[in-house]
Design brief:
With 373 residues, this protein is an alpha+beta fold. The protein contains 16 helices and ten strands. The termini are far apart. Bound molecules: protoporphyrin IX containing FE.
Length: 373
């Protein structure tokens, strides 16, 4: 498709599929012409609408900037690097729980619980409430192929409502608690920002928190699993990393390029646009394929080769432009720490079985059985 039909209309998805690196980068990099807000395409209901009020990944313009600005301070490289000891402890605890096992499901034991625990730590959610978080995150993210349709079906959305309602109530109580008793966490800083700015409400904050929870969870789970799987498939790269831990950051980048957690994103055209010679009417939906852009031979030399020393490596797995993933430094740090601890604890890590999500829904494993020595 990339060569002969780089931008083409898919009847079933009712959207324009974009495959080349240049075109994907253009769609993501021009927020005036390609909107993140899909508008009336998304199913509606009071609870979901409430959550959408803070869901800035689907917004354009000043409101996106305002809401992103609220949390961006908590995700800078510097702040995130300071979380290293905490993430190391959490990762160690999760691995301790399977220490006597010769094989285990890496997703269940580590890749799934780690990201949600880190986000709940950031937010200051009490440890005993973590299972709740895990359940909500699970229910909020649609995985099967039908649900991965651009805006999701009304039925799929309706099925989420009980979890959404429960979560909204939970966070309202958390916000009240922080107002009464401030703590050193992101939830308190959001409440303080609300007091300082009159434009911000509890509902906005709940939407922002929900976004952090959902955006930061399954994507990182997928990355952790992909890292272990890809290194299993490339034992020479794994061997090099074991002795040269400084190569971990570029190896994690290469895993992200090679197996992006999110295969595609969505945008909607604001005006009529011409992309790769193709005229696209105003209001149409566009799906830029990250997984294809990352393998574009016009951008990457030997794109199908997994090369942990690849430089430069401008993959698009965290998006591009104003919506560039806020959690990128955090997700990369978690993966570096997890791989480092796995190498410390085990001489050999072999993937013996795997089960993947539908490849159009999520680029990652549902389960990954590993045999360890
Ligand atoms: C945005 C991927 C981890 C928070 C994005 C976008 C992508 C992405 C592709 C852009 C979406 C778009 O343009 O439509 C990933 C991947 C991750 C990851 C692959 C893990 C490997 C995280 C984590 C957090 C997070 C750990 C936070 C805890 C966000 C937020 C946005 C975002 C808040 C919205 C930014 C904005 O709209 O301005 N992510 N993400 N992500 N991500 Fe991540």
């Amino acid at each position: 498709h990339r060569a002969d039909n780089p931008v083409h209309y898919d009847e079933r998805q009712r959207s324009w599929q974009v495959f080349r690196y240049v075109d994907v980068a253009e769609v993501l990099g021009d927020p005036a012409r390609y909107l993140a807000d899909l508008g009336d395409l998304r199913p509606s209901n009071p609870e979901l609408d409430l959550m959408q009020r803070g869901n800035f990944v689907n917004m354009d313009g000043p409101r996106h900037r305002m809401l992103r600005g609220l949390v961006s301070q908590a995700f800078t490289s510097k702040v995130v690097t300071a979380l290293t000891p905490k993430i190391t402890t959490l990762t160690g605890e999760l691995l301790d729980a399977v220490a006597d096992r010769e094989s285990f499901d890496l997703v269940d034991a580590l890749a799934y619980p780690l990201p949600v625990t880190v986000v709940s730590e950031l937010l200051g959610v009490p440890a005993e409430d973590r299972p709740l978080f895990r359940r909500w995150a699970e229910q909020l993210f649609p995985f099967n192929e039908e649900d991965s349709n651009v805006a999701g079906t009304q039925d799929a959305m309706d099925a989420l409502i009980p979890a959404v309602r429960e979560m909204i109530e939970y966070f309202r109580a958390q916000l009240d608690r922080r107002r009464a008793r401030p703590a050193d966490d992101l939830t308190t800083r959001l409440v303080e920002a609300e007091t300082a700015a009159d434009k911000l409400t509890d509902d906005d904050i709940i939407g922002v928190i929900t976004l952090l929870l959902t955006a930061g969870h399954v994507t990182t789970t997928a990355l952790l699993g992909n890292a272990v799987l890809t290194l299993h498939e490339h034992p020479e790269a794994a061997a090099r990393l074991r002795t040269d831990r400084d190569a971990l950051p570029s190896a994690v980048d290469e895993v992200l390029r090679y197996r992006p957690s999110l295969p595609w994103l969505t945008r909607r055209t604001a005006t009529e646009v011409t992309l790769a010679g193709q005229v696209i009417p105003a209001g149409d939906v566009i799906m830029p394929w990250l997984v294809s852009a990352n393998r574009d031979e016009a951008k990457f030399r030997d794109p199908d080769v997994f090369d942990i020393g690849r430089r430069p490596n401008q993959y698009l797995s965290f998006g591009h432009g104003i919506h560039y993933c806020l959690g990128a430094p955090l997700a990369k740090l978690e993966t570096r720490i997890a791989l480092g601890l796995l190498f410390d604890r085990y001489r050999e890590i072999a993937v013996v079985d795997d089960e993947f999500h539908h490849p159009f829904a999520m680029g990652g494993a549902k389960s990954l059985s590993v045999a360890v020595v």
